[in-house]
Amino acid sequence: MSDTREMASGTAPLDLATMREAVDRLLDPDAVPDALPPVREELVTLTLQIRGHLQLILSELEQSIGRLQPGSVCRYTLRQCLWEAHSRLEAQPSSRYGGEVGHARRLARVLRALCEHYEQMAQPPS
Q: What's the alpha-carbon Rg for the chain, to the nearest Å?
């Protein structure tokens, strides 16, 4: 099965595999405590890539949230995830919270969560 999905909006499908690959490049080091973070140039590139992915998937999910039943748990959790994604996009790196690496990883985590929401919404209702 392909990891490229199309929402009901009729727009071009999002490439979830590429999004997840970028996420994994940032979050995989979390599994190995002694792993080094990406070098500066790679970190800047990955952060920009993840920000772009977030903007694409946010747009799709915001257009599709109306299909969810008002008051449903799925709609509520998606709204919270969308809010968090917007907050992360507005935030700036802080040395208090891991600097640029910590900021990029927070963006990656919210992208991963939005990919999961996107997959759930792309599935036909059962």
A: 15
Residues 6+ apart with CB under 8 A from 66: none
Q: What are phi and psi of 119, to 5 degrees?
A: -60, -45
Predicted TM-score of the model (pTM): 0.83
- CA separation for the pair 104, 82 (Å, rounded): 17
Packing angle, helices 99-122 and 16-27, rounded to 10 = 150
Q: Residue 2 above 50 pLDDT?
A: no
The single-letter code of the amino acid at 121 is: M
Pair of tokens at residue 106: 């927070």
51-70, pLDDT tens digit by residue?
A: 999 999 999 999 989 888 99
pLDDT bracket for residue 76 (50, 70, 90): very high
CA–CA dist 80, 84 (Å, integer): 6
